[in-house]
Amino acid sequence: MHDYTVYVLRCADNTLYTGITTDLERRVTEHNGEISGGAKYTSTRNPVRVVYQEGCDSRSAASKREYEIKRLSRKEKLDLIKEYKS
């Protein structure tokens, strides 16, 4: 089991949001405004849903992977999501 999860959310306006967490279920609940603590970006774009997730063993590894994903183009992110769902 991994300690951290890198995730990509699809927001209600069809934009993508990437983040890391130790508790994905709680984090999505926060992003959807059901409990406090969600990101400012997602607060006006909910509901959101998880379209990609990847486990990492450390915060450092998760942050590095988050950075890599954030640097991808939208098309590359959509390809990553499509590959994940296959």
SSE string, helix = H, strand = E? EEHHEHH
CATH architecture: 3-Layer(aba) Sandwich
Number of helices, counting only DSSP H or I runs of 4 residues or more:
4
What integer is the average pLDDT?
96
Residue stretches low in confidence (pLDDT < 50, at least 5 long) are: none
Strand order of the largest sheet: 2-1-3
Strand content: 15-25%
The fourth-level CATH homologous superfamily is: GIY-YIG endonuclease
Number of strands: 3
The CATH topology is GIY-YIG endonuclease
Structural class: alpha+beta
Terminal CA distance reads 22 Å
Residues in helices, as a percent range: 40-55%
Q: What's the structural domain tally?
A: 1
At a glance:
With 86 residues, the protein is an alpha+beta fold. It has a single domain (4-85), classed as 3-Layer(aba) Sandwich (GIY-YIG endonuclease), CATH 3.40.1440.
Write the layout of secondary structure elements.
Elements: E1 4-10, E2 16-21, H1 24-31, H2 40-43, E3 49-56, H3 59-70, H4 74-85
Antiparallel strand pairs: 1-2, 1-3
